[in-house]
Amino acid sequence: QVQLVESGGGLVQAGGSLRLSCAASGSIFDINVMGWYRQAPGKQRELVARIASGGRTNYADSVKGRFTISRDNAKNTVYLQMNSLKPEDTAVYYCSVPLLGFDYWGQGTQVTVSS
What we know:
This protein has about 120 residues and is an all-beta fold. The protein has strands at about 1-5, 10-15, 20-25, 35-40, 45-50, 55-60, 65-70, 75-80, 90-100, 100-105, 110-115. The strands form 2 sheets. Strands 2, 4, 5, 6, 9, 10 and 11 form a 7-stranded mixed sheet that branches. The protein has a 4-stranded antiparallel sheet with strand order 1-3-8-7, with no helix packed on it.
């Protein structure tokens, strides 16, 4: 079992920044990839960014150059630094960890970007 707890969401004006955090606990010894997804109202959940334990990253095209994913393996925490936020970034952001064939999800944190 893996527990994921996100924090750092909120309301920000367009052009502003937010930093999301996700702390993993439980059976976390074999975690490789950690990722962030988001789901806007009426839309499917989509990948935002993910990072492997060795540091390799990939991003959705819509956030490249604006968002940065990072992790602290000692703290079992993954971060998402979001800069130059746009109203279309408004969504619930979820942390996710795939482990042993199962996808674990956090409870989600709301990010709202006003124009």
